[in-house]
Amino acid sequence: MSLSKVKKILKKFLYLLLFSLVYVGIGYVIGILISNRFDYALQEVLSYEGLILLIIGILFSMKGNPSGSSISGVGQNNANAMSFYDLEVTRLERESNPYHKDFLKNNIVVFAFSNLSIILGGILIIASTMIFF
Prior knowledge:
Blueprint: H1 3-38, H2 42-61, E1 62-63, H3 79-96, E2 110-111, H4 116-132
Antiparallel strand pairs: 1-2
């Protein structure tokens, strides 16, 4: 591996860590405000915030190609024909661009690296509530 690739990976990792710590800080401020306002324990509020942030991060970070299923013709007389045409278009696209040759690039679900900071922020909030409280 060249030095420039290592620098790029290190820079991405530092941004990931920085933004996840920003999410942790924002989560703690919101947790303190909610616990003071509504008389809940800070540990409970932070654990719920961490779980919500983790789930939102996982849902936001998913992207990819649909696997060919379509609900555009549901409830119409020609629903089967529309599904067939959608599947044919998907098949033709995959034949023109070989789908299985580069499976990792054409994967159905791919996790985006930039949204990984939200997931890491949720994990850090949950871990810190387990360690410190």
